[in-house]
Amino acid sequence: MEIISPANSAKCSKKIAFSSAEKELIISLVSERPIIENKQTNARNIELKRAAWDEIENAYNAVPFVVKRTALQLKRCWENIKSCRKKELSMEVGSLLQTGGGVGEAGTTENVIDSICPYINLTVPGVIDSNTEEKVLGKRFVT
């Protein structure tokens, strides 16, 4: 009976989690290829994105300390990294909007992912809500 391990077969059902070093490598490889986060979906861009993921796969697998992965696995990991960042931002905003007194936590932290995906942390400028203070003609109005 032959034992199949994750290191020697792609058919194995056991999945190896990405290490933090592998995730940092993926972030750096994606940051070098801005076409990945281009929102246009025409045929040319789709082909360029596929080629970029193939390049990322080759560059990733050329590094000696990583587990060999496919382009699809790397793409899913990147999507998971973005999703986790969106959740972090949502939690930060939620903590600022909580009621109960006291001062909210510090403002939004800057992250490398935010520079790669500028749409991930969109805010609408000039929105007046319950936390907005305006100074009009020397008087303070809280709206």
The computed structural class is: mainly alpha
pLDDT under 50 segments (min length 5)? 1-6, 134-138
* Secondary-structure element series: HHHHEE
Strand order in space, largest sheet: 1-2
Subunit structure: Self-associates forming complexes of several hundred monomers.
Protein name: Regulatory protein zeste
Keywords: Transcription, Transcription regulation
Domain Myb/SANT-like DNA-binding: 16-89
Q: How do you describe this structure in short?
A:
The chain is mostly helical.
Question: What does this molecule look like?
Answer:
The protein is mainly alpha-helical. It has one domain. It contains four helices and two strands. The protein has a two-stranded antiparallel ribbon. A hairpin with a 2-residue loop joins β1 and β2 (139-142). α1 (20-31) packs across α3 (71-97). The longest helix is centred in the middle third of the chain and has 27 residues, at 71-97. The chain is globular and about 50 Å long. This is Regulatory protein zeste. InterPro entries: Myb_DNA-bind_5. Residues 16-89 form the Myb/SANT-like DNA-binding domain.
Attribute tags:
143 residues, mainly alpha, two-stranded antiparallel sheet, 4 helices, 2 strands, 6% strand, globular, disordered N terminus
Fold topology:
Layout: H1 20-31, H2 43-61, H3 71-97, H4 112-116, E1 133-136, E2 139-142
Antiparallel strand pairs: 1-2
